[in-house]
Structure formats: C-alpha cells, structure tokens
Amino acid sequence: MLLVVAKMVMSAVTVTTGLEVDFPSSTLEPEKHKPRTPVVNAALGMLVASIFRLLFWIYDIIGSVILAVLFKFPAEKNPLPPIGNRKFLRQSVTEIADQIRRREITSEEVVRAFIGRIEEVNNQITALVDERFDLAIEEARKVDKLIQSGEYDETELQDKFPLLGVPFTIKDSFCVAGLKHTAGLHLRKEITAPQDADVVKSLKRVGAIPLGVTNVSELCMWWESVNTVYGRSKNPYDTRHITGGSSGGEGALQACAGSAFGVGSDIAGSIRMPSFFCGLFGHKPSTGLISNWGQVPETFGRLAELLTTGPMVRHARDMRLLLDVMLGDNIKKINKVPEMKQMRVLYMVHDGGSPLASPVNDEMQDCVRRCVQHLEYKYGVKPQKVNIIKLYHSLEIWAQTLCGAGAVPFCEELALKQGKVNPFLELIKFFFNASPHTFPAIVLGLVEKVAYVGTKLPRHQNMIEMGNSFVKEFQELMSDDAIFIYPSHPTAAPRHHEPWLAPADFSYCGIFNVLGVPVTQVPMGLGSKGLPIGVQVVGGINSDHLTIKVAEELEAAFGGWVPPS
C-alpha cells in the first residue's frame, strides 16, 4: 500500500514541480524555454524520463507481486450466462424503437426482457445499484396504450417520441427521481434523488424509460468503479478485470445487454474508458452542448467545461440518435459532416513516451494502424502520422487545469462539504479496515495536498497556459474536416486493483476534456487475452457527427461490439 501511495505522490510531485521532457519536432510548436539551450533541455529531459521509467518499472514489478499476494487473484474468470438468441437484447435502440412504433413488439415485452437480463447477470458484475422495475413496467404499459389508441400515426410518433418505450440506465452520479443518489460516497448512501437530472428529463420527454442507476467510483474520481456503498464492478468479458470508471457499472451492464442504452459522464475519460474496457461505443460530446445539471459532484465555471454527458451503446448508429436528443436546440451548433473522401486523417500510436503513463502496447498501436489503413483503403484519403508534442504533457495539462478550475476541494466533497476529511487519518484507518473510503479516494486526498503546494509554483500557471494554447492550436490543426485516431489506453482492461500501479494512464483520455473536442470510443473486437480493444476518434470542436460517422464505418469494417461469452 505504501508503494502505491509513493507512486501516486511521486507522479503528483512530477506534475506539480516542473519535471518535463520536450522533443525537438512537432506538428504543433513546442513551448520555448529561454533558460536552457535545446540540446541541454533535451539531455536533461531524457535523463529525468529515464530515471522515472526505471523507478516506475521497479515499482510495477514489486507492486504486481504484492497485489497478487494481497488480493489472491482467482485463477479463472467467472463466465456470465450467455445472451443467446433473445432478439431484443442484441438489437440496436433504433431497431427496438421502430418495432415498438410499428406494434411489432410491445414496450412491456422489451422492458421485461431487459429486467430479466439484469436479474440474470447483476450479482456477478455489480452493475445496477438501484432500480425502478415496477414503475418502468407501468410506464411501458402506458406507452403501449398510447400507441394502440391511434392518437399519433407512426411518423408522428417517430418525430415526437423517437425513443418511445425504450428502456435505459444511467450512472449513479445522476439524479433519477426516487432512486438512491450516492455517487459512491458512504455519507450519501441514504440520499434519494428528489427529481431528475436534465439529461434524464430530455430522454423521458421523448419516451425513454429509466430502469435504474449504475455503479461508479467514489465521487467519480477514479478509473476503477469501486466504492464502500455497493462494492466493485466486474468486467463481463473476464470478471477478474476492471470495467473502468467512473461510469464502470454502466459499461458492464451495457456490455452484457442489460438495457437498451446507457448514459455516462466524462471529465477525464469516464465514458470512454468503461466503453473501451467493456467493448462499447461511447461518445464524449464537444464541451458545453449538453446540460450537466443534476450530477454529483456539482460542477461550475471551468470545471463544468471539462465535464460532458453522453451515450454508451452497443451499436454505433444509436449514438447519433441519442446525442441529438440530448443536444436539444444545441443541435444547430453541430458542424455538417464533410464528404468522407475529403476528410483528413491524422494519427499517433502513443503520446511520445511520457514516463508517467504506461507504454502503449503493440496490440493497441496496431488498432490505430488498422483503422487508418481501412480509412485510406475505403475513401482514398492519405493518413498523416503526426507528432503533437503537447500530448506528451497530457497528465500535467489535465491536472493543472483541474487544480486551477476552482473546484470544491476533494476532501470537502468527501465530507459532504461539512468540514474536511483528513486523508492522513483515513489512510491509517484504511490499513486497519476501518475507513469508510476507498484507497484511491484517500490517496487522491493526499495528492490534493501536494497539488496545493504545486499551485504556488510558476509551473502551475505555465501548464495552464500551455493547455490554453493547446486548445487553439489543436482546433487550428483539426478544423471541420479532420479526425485524429489515438489510443484509448495503453493496454486492454487491467485486473482489479492494478490501476493503482498506473494511476496516470487515464491521461490518454483526459487531455481531450481540456481541449473540449468531441471524442468517440470505437471497439475493435477482442484482443489476445479475450478482452475488448479499440481506439479513440477525435474531431474538431462541434464535429460530433463526423466522429460518429467514422465510428459507424469502423463498426461496419471491424464488427463493433462482441457479446461476452
């Protein structure tokens, strides 16, 4: 445990005290440092990077052995009941909604089918944490009566209620009236949401039916979904592995077809990482287009710009439909999709070698190359391999932007803003199994103390300014006709607890929250270990429909979601 604290704090010290490496060439101009010559700067940078890589390599070896001993990883995965040929569970949202409107199936049939699937698998994956099954069935019956009444014809139903009778689930950090609203925090375990979050209202307004809420990490600030209220979510493809976070319960439930679609939120990859680890499509919209109201923790100012709300689905075509519903009037801000043959395709297979994140393995790099090669073959585009140097600083830029966003201190959030949690005391209590908080939350509280010191150093403002300039430069690079293919993560889903060994690996996703651009997570089948693999498709600001269009093409080429067996 102390080794884990050491690595997390060491990463925080690196981020906050100014250790850095710059490469001499880039498609975007690197920051200029007057005090040192480029040669000296590069030499010092490579030395620092080499030292940290060596330290982290030693740490990873020791840490892996300790974790294996402490948690006694099971030798075999725990397979889930198969989906079989139950058609509702395999169909897209679009197909289900069409059949309900045409009276080929009833909403009640669909709702009961998904409830049955949840009851079949939930004990093994800890995905759904509170439900409204009886209410959902009642609402489905009302939908069926409305359709049978003939008040609206099929076209009118599609225009007015495009999701009529379709069941969905949403992460526990969102308000769903009458359901528990814990955000994974033990002090909130008895809190019930008095009303719906804005996105829930939008979905219900067009006929969708909420089934329940799904598990998250404690206060949504870790990339494995575990908390002391409900426990640990497990990956349907191999229950020894993580689902990602913070929308990890949603990722697990969608992967095994527990509802027609899901809704997550994303401040550092919380839609994309669970979608990646669980073999789904997930979309992080452009910043500021969809209301975040009704979530915990609350966000405001710059923090609200980092957070986005979006869909998690098994079928790429559903993202456009769901996104447009969530956008409401803001749909007019979305750029038109260019001719695919006119599209510019940029790509990178890693972040340039930051010592803070794990190296991207060959399988993940190959995913990027296969996507690029397919787009070149299909549309005749000429992909361009770029070297965007500021991606090397992804963790620093994201962390310093967050520190400078004016958020409520995490230790206050842990105490429901009624005082502060003492992370040093909680760490001691944790060793005696007496803390109500998870280990990552406690360590984040410790890191927050280090980060506070770092905000007083010149490096803090320098990194914020680097992030601000990166926003402008990246948009100039992308414009309206470009996509950028980038790894989702260095590896497929790690085993439970292993994110402790690589706390900075979320940076492959987090940097795009700072940039405010749309990103679509695309599954690329299963890797060598039987776990999902995939890529991120990044666009320019408000080019959400373009990244989704590319995802649809990649689904057609590579198969998309593969049901867990």
From TrEMBL:
<dbReference type="InterPro" id="IPR052739">
    <property type="entry name" value="FAAH2"/>
</dbReference>
<dbReference type="Pfam" id="PF01425">
    <property type="entry name" value="Amidase"/>
</dbReference>
<protein>
    <submittedName>
        <fullName>Fatty-acid amide hydrolase 2</fullName>
    </submittedName>
</protein>
<keyword id="KW-0472">Membrane</keyword>
<feature type="signal peptide">
    <location>
        <begin position="1"/>
        <end position="18"/>
    </location>
</feature>
<dbReference type="GO" id="GO:0016787">
    <property type="term" value="F:hydrolase activity"/>
</dbReference>
<feature type="active site" description="Charge relay system">
    <location>
        <position position="246"/>
    </location>
</feature>
<feature type="active site" description="Charge relay system">
    <location>
        <position position="171"/>
    </location>
</feature>
<keyword id="KW-1133">Transmembrane helix</keyword>
<dbReference type="InterPro" id="IPR036928">
    <property type="entry name" value="AS_sf"/>
</dbReference>
<feature type="transmembrane region" description="Helical">
    <location>
        <begin position="42"/>
        <end position="71"/>
    </location>
</feature>
<keyword id="KW-0378">Hydrolase</keyword>
<keyword id="KW-0732">Signal</keyword>
<feature type="domain" description="Amidase">
    <location>
        <begin position="109"/>
        <end position="547"/>
    </location>
</feature>
<feature type="active site" description="Acyl-ester intermediate">
    <location>
        <position position="270"/>
    </location>
</feature>
<dbReference type="GO" id="GO:0012505">
    <property type="term" value="C:endomembrane system"/>
</dbReference>
<keyword id="KW-0812">Transmembrane</keyword>
<dbReference type="InterPro" id="IPR023631">
    <property type="entry name" value="Amidase_dom"/>
</dbReference>
